[in-house]
Amino acid sequence: MSDDLMLKALQKKPEEGLRMAMDKYARLVYHIALGKLRDVCSKEDIEELVSDVFLALFENRNKIKSGKIKAFLCSVALNKSVDLFRRITFSQTVELKEDILSYDGMVEEMFFKAQDKKELKAALSQLDELDKSILARKIYLRQTSKQIAQALNLSDDAVRKRISRSYEKLRENLSGVI
Amino acid sequence: MELYEYLPENLEFDENTLNELKALTVNKLKRTKRKNTVKRLITIAASFVLVIALMWAVGFENVAAAAQRLFSFIPGFGITESEENIYILKETVTTENEKAKVTLYHASSVGYFDAESLYFHLVINYKDGYEPNSQKLMSGHGKIYYKDKVYGNEYSNIRGSYYNSVYQITGLRVDFPHNEIMVDEEYILEITVDETTVSIPFVLQDANRNENIEVVTQTSGSISVTAVKYREILEQEEYIAVDLQLKGDNNTGYKLPDPLPYVNTGVYFESENKKVVPKKNIGSTYYFDPRQVLEGDILKLSGIYCFENIEETSFTVKVPEEGEREKLKVEIPFNLGKFILKEAYASGGKLFIVVESEFYADIIHVNPRITRDAKDIVSPMNRDLNFTDSNFNEMSVNIKETDSEIIFNINSVHYTMNETFEFNFN
């Protein structure tokens, strides 16, 4: 099912289109929410969030441009997850995890600061395909270096090095913007 | 290619979860449509009934004035001018001691019939090497001194979040008797955090009397929100600051829980072709890039997420035999409604409790913090329990072999209100 057909279905038969979109993208949206919220939320809360993401797609079906369904869902899922994470941890002392203080955490923070800026696209284009795959998994799915290494058939060490190199490159390219 | 395009699509996923998600989403969609229709019909009907009743009771001459007063409290008929005093901080204040630098960024007032409250947002930056005790941070409190008067007490608790040597206080409320807050007078805010007391002098101004500050109030459902827009320089950068003050509608008697609820479900400026999101927020003050926000842009606020700390309540449920049902008579009230536990039944090794919920507002999601066996009470989530839908109509828990009865505790309720607000600053 192409995204264009899905968008047409969403606009002409909205509920049917919504089901199609869920068939194709629910697992991805679910994993984005799970990555950010697994330590602070129950399964039910994560499911609530995922359904809210698809309701947002439904409500915006006439505004979304062709070929942008995946972008919309990923962006809304990530922003809603971060939002909920902040709300839940608002009244608590957050336990600092090692990766928050490492390049992994910094690259994520940089992405959030620059996500609405056009310079981010240019900065990302300076990275090679493998680095972008690693960053996508790190930022959207919050996979650990070990999980990324397994999925992409690399060593842990290689993943960590690539993340730190990507961070430095992005920082250089985005200096003055964020 | 953009980053999201590198995301894999062959991630592990249980088909049952997909089916549950589809059912949940379609149900929500139907509920939203139904609620919107019912809400509109009720609003129209209520308006007619009230106006006709008024005409009959007080005569036509008084109807216009009376209707205007009443409409400001009927859902959907927001008011756009605030008649109340809206106090905000005259300027940001910073003070420091040997352990920390404390900045008072924001104070704002919320008025009720019988009292007014000041809410404060402060940021404490701990100095090199000092590590505060997280438990003691939680038990902080604040008072205000003005000449020989003291406002607030040890129950004026502080709520905030600590991260990386920074403690952000976003929930300190101090109550004043009605009409006792003054502008251009020096107050002293005294906060005690981590067993250290810090005094911060501050001065208030009346936002309605400052031509550089715009104030708009909107009412929807049981909630009234005042948006105060002004320019502020933080860390040498200029921002458009918008402070959102929430309060319950005086007419329904609903008072929002203390401390200030979250409002950051969705706050942004919108015009025909763009959406400007805040660069940051400190508590419920949102800071926007002034280069992006133009005159006439409308501020939108969608959804309000709140939590209420309720008096801790325990209830015991006897575990019935498989297939049998046990009647329950447990009521758990909170500010915005109540849960009535109707019955319990056992099925497939799980205990199910059927719950009837009553809400006094349009709630799209509710999440009570319930724990079992008095353990893990402070945890925000408890994975032992499952709520089967977003409005908490049923919950289930695994039955252990040793369980003849299960003791549950509830200490707070989190919920999202289905209210949206638009503020047009002109």
Structural topology:
The complex is a heterodimer of chains A (about 180) and B (about 425).
Chain A: H1 3-12, H2 14-37, H3 43-59, H4 69-89, H5 98-101, H6 103-114, H7 118-125, H8 129-141, H9 145-152, H10 156-174
Chain B: H1 15-58, H2 60-71, E1 87-89, E2 93-96, E3 100-111, E4 115-126, H3 134-138, E5 141-146, E6 149-151, E7 158-163, E8 166-177, E9 186-193, E10 196-206, E11 214-220, E12 223-234, E13 237-248, E14 267-271, E15 274-276, E16 280-282, E17 285-288, E18 298-318, E19 325-334, E20 337-347, E21 350-359, E22 363-372, E23 385-387, E24 394-398, E25 405-424
Antiparallel strand pairs in B: 1-10, 2-3, 3-4, 4-8, 5-6, 5-9, 7-8, 9-10, 11-12, 12-13, 13-17, 14-15, 14-18, 16-17, 18-25, 19-20, 20-21, 21-24, 22-25, 23-24
Helix pairs in contact in B: 1-2
Which structural class is indicated by helix and strand composition of chain B?
A: mainly beta
Unreliable runs of chain B, pLDDT <50, ≥5 residues? 64-82, 376-384
How many beta-strand runs of chain B?
A: 25
Distance between the termini of chain A: 38 Å
- Report the span from N to C terminus of chain B: 42 Å
How would you sum up this structure, described in words?
The complex is a heterodimer of chains A (178) and B (426). With 178 residues, chain A is mostly helical. In chain A, 76% of the residues lie in helices and 0% in strands. The model of chain A is unreliable at 91-101 (pLDDT under 50). Chain B has 426 residues and is mainly β. Chain B has three helices and 25 strands. Chain B has helices at 15-58, 60-71, 134-138, and strands at residues 87-89, 93-96, 100-111, 115-126, 141-146, 149-151, 158-163, 166-177, 186-193, 196-206, 214-220, 223-234, 237-248, 267-271, 274-276, 280-282, 285-288, 298-318, 325-334, 337-347, 350-359, 363-372, 385-387, 394-398, 405-424. In chain B, strands 1-10-9-5-6 form a five-stranded antiparallel sheet. Chain B has a five-stranded antiparallel sheet with strand order 2-3-4-8-7. A five-stranded antiparallel sheet of chain B has the order 11-12-13-17-16, with no helix packed on it. In chain B, a hairpin with a 2-residue loop joins strand 11 (214-220) and strand 12. In chain B, helix 1 (15-58) packs antiparallel against helix 2. Chain B is globular. The two termini of chain B are 42 Å apart. Residues 64-82 and 376-384 of chain B have low confidence and may be disordered. The chains are: A mainly alpha (178), B mainly beta (426). Chains A and B meet through helix 2, helix 3, helix 4 and helix 8 of A and helix 1, helix 3, strand 7 and strand 23 of B.
